[in-house]
């Protein structure tokens, strides 16, 4: 599903939009390196595993409504649950 399809269905597609934006940012390496030099790296502090789990849950909760709506439109019986 694309961002355009999600918009046509009236479903927020922020996870898809963020993924596209991240891909664009990753393609402009020179600009990223210049920004890091000017502003610093920042880095991740604290429990990285907990951060990754929080990010995974947030992504799942954002994408699930999109997948379920599209599944209904296509006549599928998609059942999504997050694995523990």
Any chance you could write out the topology, listing elements then pairs?
Blueprint: H1 3-9, H2 14-27, H3 29-39, H4 48-73
Organism: Mesorhizobium prunaredense
Domain 6-phosphogluconate dehydrogenase C-terminal: 2-60
Pfam families: 6PGD
What does this structure look like?
The protein is mainly alpha-helical and 84 residues long. The chain contains four helices and no strands. The chain is flat. The relative contact order is 0.14.
Order of helices and strands: HHHH
Into how many domains do the coordinates divide? 1
**Helix vs. strand class:** mainly alpha
Rg over CA atoms, rounded to whole Å, is 17 Å
Helix content: 55-70%
Number of helices: 4
How much beta, percentage-wise?
Answer: under 5%
- Net shape: flat
Detail the poorly predicted runs. Answer: none
| Mean pLDDT across every amino acid position | 77
The beta-strand count equals 0
Biggest beta-sheet profile = none
Termini separation comes to 26 Å
Search tags:
4 helices
In short:
The protein is mainly α and 84 residues long. 69% of the residues lie in helices and 0% in strands. The mean pLDDT is 77.
